[in-house]
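Audit log entry. Action: structure prediction of a protein-small molecule complex. Ligand: zinc ion. The ligand was supplied as SMILES and no pocket hint was given, so placement is left entirely to the predictor. Protonation state taken as written. Sequence taken verbatim from the request; no trimming, no tag removal. Recorded inputs:
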Amino acid sequence: MTTLLGTLLDSLRRRAPAEENLACPRCGTRGSLVPVEVSLPGGLLACRSCGQAADETGRRLDPCPRCAWPSPPRGQDRHPCLPAEELPSSPLDEALLEDLLPEVTGRPVETERLEDYVAGVLERLAPGPEPARVHLLDGGEPLVCLLPGGRRLVCSLGMLAVLEDEAQLAFVLAREVVFEERGLVGKRFAGTGRESRGGFLSFLRGGTRRTVRDALLLSLLVGWGPDLEREADLLALRRVARAGWDPRRAAGVPALLEPGALEGAGSRFAGAAARARDLREEAALLVARPASRVNREVYRRAVGGFAVFATP
Ligand SMILES: [Zn+2]
Ligand SMILES: [Zn+2]
């Protein structure tokens, strides 16, 4: 794999000697922290066991309530956050994003039919004033995130390949809708278009292009931290049930996606066993409508006919 994403995933899979002995500040596992190439001062590691983010010294990093970038606990460090007047988010630079996406994801995949299908599922979960658009990433890792505004989704072919039916796809997309509706996505991208000296961009050290790229990679690979990710599991489950899919199918999703984390492809779906347990309990509380959809065959027809990977 020669894409930028591929290079970054390779770097995730390599562990520097300094990280071998670090314990995860959340779950205590040694050697589970892998580097993520996002340009934060102090570096960024993600735990493959529990999904926690940490800096290079093993200190815990959680999403900042204001800018949603990984930040140290309050008072432990100066966190050069967005100034209050720069919130809420400015619109994302669309032209830059169009330019950047192929660089991050590999060549654009000619899969209009598949993109329309995924966009249709997103529309049913979150109808909006503009039609939903989907950018498919050419790669085998299960990755997904929404962009600010919630009408544009980035999703890998690997994600579609590993899921088993439409109810599971709906669950994965509903999780992203939860983060977007909470404003986390907008907050994270809010500072990326600003060319201010001494402000947010200089904190991230790289100019607009690099910062948008970092926000995208952060959202795909590290997500929002284990607490919010697990909370989103449950909120997404209810949303999926309300929209008419069978919520019981969601419990299988973490086990399908966790191997990606173990291989170093992000940490968002770590901790599968506990998450599956929570999802099963929650699904049992939701009254599945007799006609709730799984749509296995529909999904297979949409996804299965496509030669999924250009890359392994
Ligand atoms: Zn951990
Ligand atoms: Zn902040």
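Audit: result stored. The two ends are 8 Å apart (CA to CA). Residues 86 and 191 are 8 Å apart (CA to CA).
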